[in-house]
Queue: 4 jobs
Job 1
Amino acid sequence: MSASPLLKDAMARIAADVASMFDALLPVPTDPRARLMEAMRYAVLGGGKRLRPLLLTAVADMYRVDRAAALRAGIAIESIHVYSLVHDDLPCMDNDAMRHGKPTAHLAFDEATAVLAGDALHDFAFEVLADTATSSDPFTRAELILTLATASGSNGMAGGQMMDIVAETSQFDLPTITRLQQLKTGALLGASVEMGAILGKVPVEGRAHLRGYARDIGLAFQIADDLLDYEGDEAAAGKALRKDAAAGKQTFVSLLGPDRAREQARMLVEQAVAHLASHGQEADLLRDIARYIVERDH
Amino acid sequence: MSASPLLKDAMARIAADVASMFDALLPVPTDPRARLMEAMRYAVLGGGKRLRPLLLTAVADMYRVDRAAALRAGIAIESIHVYSLVHDDLPCMDNDAMRHGKPTAHLAFDEATAVLAGDALHDFAFEVLADTATSSDPFTRAELILTLATASGSNGMAGGQMMDIVAETSQFDLPTITRLQQLKTGALLGASVEMGAILGKVPVEGRAHLRGYARDIGLAFQIADDLLDYEGDEAAAGKALRKDAAAGKQTFVSLLGPDRAREQARMLVEQAVAHLASHGQEADLLRDIARYIVERDH
């Protein structure tokens, strides 16, 4: 663990804020829908690093965005992330039994409830963003929604997951694996940064350096994930590891070898930090997040 | 078949417009995501009455909304409807093999692809609504999105589907079955009417009669569905019937008997039409839709 004090504080704060906001926004009704909300709460309150809300609020803070508005947008992107994990863990997808050290949603509940809870969290993300409480400005709301829906759908995360399924029976080369990961993981990480900039009213032409930062940390994050999958500890990860190798699936580690992969991740982090050169200490948290991404142990 | 000439024309027109717009908006890319888009296209181009876009455009026409803007909103609500069918048909849900007379998506492709195609259509709906082409006015876009996300999520369709799963192991009474159906089917039919009114800039206080109309036809639609399930023809329906009875699930027909159920549906249609009394012939299509809903044979 190598998080800076600044990052440690920010991670603890976002974890507490995200948990209390999910708790407040997802009450359990006293009707037969209770099981659905219990499954949604189980999934969103189950832990996780809250990296996407952290990135979103870190960027928003640089532009002095109201914390409550940034947090609501962070809740939306975390809902999308969690719904995708719930569906990804299903028997017909990755068939995973553990997530954050607990049974996955379809085992804690049942498959049908897990499908529905994922679907309902998917809607919940857009409900939160479309609600007037997220931002008083409807232009901003519409831009946030378009950014998130695009990052999540067939031209983003879902497209990357489809490529990931195809990868099980195809031999992808490095450019194709890079594209797969940019969609599967990078799109949502990029949307986190972008949504912070949208809330900060940064004009599109002023976002290029933030997009560069997001692209680089997105790829570095995935290479670090592949390294953790290759040499990490299952207890620290809270989930099964070494599944890609068992499935014969190409990863950055299988294509580059662990040493070159590690070097590549470090280079991407330096590049990500370099994109922030025009910023002073207000970007220190983003710099620390970039370094943490390749040094984390889970 | 008892559609009026007015309704027949409108149904043929919306079917053609919806199909050509889906075709244009969902091109198949020449990369490994192709299979995802093929599954999305298979599901959305597979037929269906297009009742939700029909309702939306019928209301929008009453208020002289631009046809292209109304159609895009109709595409969004149809995407939500179709995604829910794809997930509903999954083995862990209703385990259905036929839909619109064709193999369901998870049989035509595979389960993982069907889950992802549903998820991607879910996003696609919000992408379409958030896009500036849907409406040049961001207030309207945000209101459309909030209406659709609410109707689709845990307080709407997904909540109703959860109740439907619980119904398999519980004995629900008539008020609970009514609530279940208002969520499962009624919420999205209601959103269709509401979104037409939003595009038509009808103020909230001027929508009460349209909401009453939508509530009544939503319930009538479900009773008619239960009657078709009870006494209909599988070939005309293009799907398996009499599954509720086999599962011992309560329906309007099991609770009321077929005669009282039919009478109730007819009464609801009269009530729906009465809500439109303040309108002249511009509401004739809505009146014809209400009557068709209980007289259709599939």
Note: Chain B touches chain A through 60 residues (CB under 8 Å).
Job 2
Amino acid sequence: TSSPSNLFGNRGMTLEQDLNDTNQYYRSTGKAVIHKKPTPVQIVHVDYPKRSAAKITEAYFKQPSTTDYNGIYRGSYIDFEAKETRNKTSFPFGNIHAHQMEHMHDILRHDGIAFLIIRFTLLEQTYLYDASLFLDWYFGQKERKSIPLQDIRENGHYIPLQYSPRINYLDIVDLIYFS
Amino acid sequence: TSSPSNLFGNRGMTLEQDLNDTNQYYRSTGKAVIHKKPTPVQIVHVDYPKRSAAKITEAYFKQPSTTDYNGIYRGSYIDFEAKETRNKTSFPFGNIHAHQMEHMHDILRHDGIAFLIIRFTLLEQTYLYDASLFLDWYFGQKERKSIPLQDIRENGHYIPLQYSPRINYLDIVDLIYFS
Ligand SMILES: [Mg+2]
Ligand SMILES: [Mg+2]
């Protein structure tokens, strides 16, 4: 398939910004309740100055134990991880931590909806890719350490960028999981 | 009703520790996938020293925009906030932020399961209390700024402390939401 054209462009917005904007739109219109989880941080030291807010002065980033986004849509539990890559031909597994794989696997076992939203930043293309397909690649073969873009194009779903909501991924969710 | 006895005692465990232990138990036995969200932090400054991990040197606690726990159980979206109070006669509204009220309201509108787990630490008693009852108290009257313990005893559900899992709240969820 040829590269879909991109009328709106990224305009310097990251995938996370686009998704936050979109989830805000979904919440305010009553379509879904989906939030990004806070970045996990290991807090080591906090100062409590008088008359001002507690200040964290030493902390470190922790590996997330789950994916970044979850919530409820059409009565179903929904869960996804969003990743950008500068790679132009494939999506490297290294982008997803072992705990996140395990988490997606758990969600599928419990009949939740789980997927990835993958943006190829240099190509300006974003795809929704089902978690079970991703886990098949990861656990089902040993030759490759990445998923070919070609497969993501064929078995995933292109998400066009729009003005508002920026990245209307629930339209794709309707198509894949509710029809 | 009289105070239920507490065979196992708190043994210095906070409600959060008890819930983390319990959720870990639920995940490892395949019963449910429920996680605590990370504490939301506004990161202001990060040092990137050579040859060691990025160090956050200035950050502040942010108000959470959702409740602290969510996940999937028996195919349903489940969401709750956990709070400890040292109050002996009532649960003050001030323990729950406006955003969290709004979030619980949203979840109920989308047919999710939402509740509070409230521990009266000095009484060593823990209760599950449905979010709709909580929101009724909060929005339905103006006289009180708290929910009487008596009401929580009558309309909530006492959760006994056990050895493992520490606080088996899904037994109560079965009773209230699945029977
Ligand atoms: Mg992430
Ligand atoms: Mg909290």
Note: Residues 15-28 of chain B form the longest helix (14 residues).
Job 3
Amino acid sequence: MAFSPLIQNLIDALRCLPGVGPKSAQRMAFHLLQRDRPGAARLADALVKAVDNVGECAECRLLTEQPICDICASPRRDRSLMCIVESPADVFALEQATDYSGVYFVLMGRLSPLDGIGPKELGLERLEARFAAGEVKEIILATNPTVEGEATAQYIAEMAHEHNVVTSRIAHGVPIGGELEYVDSGTLSHAFAGRREYR
Amino acid sequence: MAFSPLIQNLIDALRCLPGVGPKSAQRMAFHLLQRDRPGAARLADALVKAVDNVGECAECRLLTEQPICDICASPRRDRSLMCIVESPADVFALEQATDYSGVYFVLMGRLSPLDGIGPKELGLERLEARFAAGEVKEIILATNPTVEGEATAQYIAEMAHEHNVVTSRIAHGVPIGGELEYVDSGTLSHAFAGRREYR
């Protein structure tokens, strides 16, 4: 016996959520239909509103429903300092963890020629125009420490050097609270090579 | 810094899904907005259609968008045999695992007076009316082996006896592939007390 078409349809649609397989999708569908129909209606409404209204900030590409995001619009932000990240989630993680007071630039991905993601898809032309305009004095490269993330950082660093923008990369090493024994060798060799004077 | 209101709203709405905490809700929201807007629109549509159209089967209370579900409407099902379960998910689990050819009755819960769930909320009046009508000759109690599930099975069994309906309870014991060493003591004492002659 199969589920009735609308229930099957809902189960299939729930699979678009990351980390949701067939069993959890089924559990979610039954939960919503049996116990939380107001929640399901609210979720549908939130999805429609977000899909229709949330776009990218014209300056930094952060997800926002305004033309310019709160960070770029804030007069308290130092617009000569720019942190470059791969995704909007990275911005929120950094905002929560640090007292960074500059602006951001969200690449919405990383260079990955095999997937057809080149400099254009990442908005690097727009980034270079901002370097050329001379407002940005310093950038912090906070792309992920993956092969593509490193290549992206490298590419942007070269662009920045051409425009005499000071460039730094966030530190990579053993995470706080981690144990050397359980850290992968790539991280450990990074941490070793990037050691600092201890005073 | 906070998320923009529509994004925060979407994150909050995603929390209505079972097993989704603040971090996964955030991950889901960003995934949908960055990478799968068609999927998000499809999900919103499926939610609205399911909430608006899926109701309970008038005979067995299974979730369906028709007045009578496929099982109750099927001429190949033995209507004198009825399996009583707590939730629609149980029906699908049994349909997949067994070749049961009777009909079902879905309680949509279990007796739980503290939560205000009594015989009325479980549709037991309707169930008793069906016993009284005489069509049902035999029931299989497949409520969960929890305290409330057992109490519910007990209550329904008494109702069935009054109407001379043959009653059985699904077997409880060590699960297939399980190891005695790791099975909890309640299950083990059940399995021991419910042992069967071995031929």
Note: The two ends of chain A are 71 Å apart (CA to CA).
Job 4
Amino acid sequence: MTRTVGSTAADTGARLRQAALQLFARHGYAAVSMRQIAAEIGVQVGGLYNHIPDKQTLLFRLLSEHMAELLEAVEAAEIPAEPLPALEAFTRFHIRHHAARPEQVFISYMELRNLSPENFALLEAQRQDYEARLSAILERGAAAGVMQVEDARMATMAIIAMLTGVNTWFRETGRLSLGQVEEVYWGMVRRMVAA
Amino acid sequence: MTRTVGSTAADTGARLRQAALQLFARHGYAAVSMRQIAAEIGVQVGGLYNHIPDKQTLLFRLLSEHMAELLEAVEAAEIPAEPLPALEAFTRFHIRHHAARPEQVFISYMELRNLSPENFALLEAQRQDYEARLSAILERGAAAGVMQVEDARMATMAIIAMLTGVNTWFRETGRLSLGQVEEVYWGMVRRMVAA
């Protein structure tokens, strides 16, 4: 019995996150009420508060879980130690991971302005943890003389922006497969830091 | 007398756009009412309708004027004909132009989803007009053998994403001047298409 109740609660929690994600992505955080989210998943608005104390916490959890999932996934991707193979693995990982989560990526950028200062600081720490992995690859590559990197921080931001930008134009029904996109982007990233 | 009335109307129109831009950037289009915009500039909501028929038209004009201004500015930048100097001039122009307009750039990306299909199509045409200028430079460079470009469309999207991405991290009070940022980004763009 406890188990069934637990499963149902977990299920409602998951549907709540999914509904909030879609409503925030479509209309924006500020325009969506807890009442609308409750209606979307077919529960009373009071029932939501068993799962989440308020809308700000809901937004923060969505963004923070997106970053936690990214950090776990990059860990699981087993990026090699050698700088150039590491950069290739990171490039391909970043494109694939983000292309599979367009709504999370969109609200992660768009709704930063709606986080409380405390929540924004927590999210920034997660983001910097991810960015630091790419910066470390570039610094190792520059130190080993296999990459030219004037400024590891700017190169990190440039590479992440160009890779995440794939989400703005890539369509699965388009002329190119994601594998072809990865290939061309890896060529551009490799040249961008060519020693 | 006509002249004074005309100037006042133009002034209200400009203040209306500025207020809408800031409110949309802060709260999102869907969360902002015409009443709030009117309150922000100190007029009755009925007075807004002398300037703009509805909120959708207001959003479209903001985004469309941003693109029109971009197209005029790139024209005025007198990009040279030679491919490599053209790419350098385009890179520097794009960073400078966008860094000076963070709110317009932000809502131009974020509020695309709130345009009507007709307005979206009009804006897309303007955007493609701009992107085509960069694609043409890359194609000329590849044809002349001074650039390596596997896919001019993807290289265009990659370069624009990385350059516009400067807006997400650059602060005028930071460790770098915009001139230094331009310099490092031009180095990365040049290598990205190195033949």
Note: The radius of gyration of chain A is 19 Å.
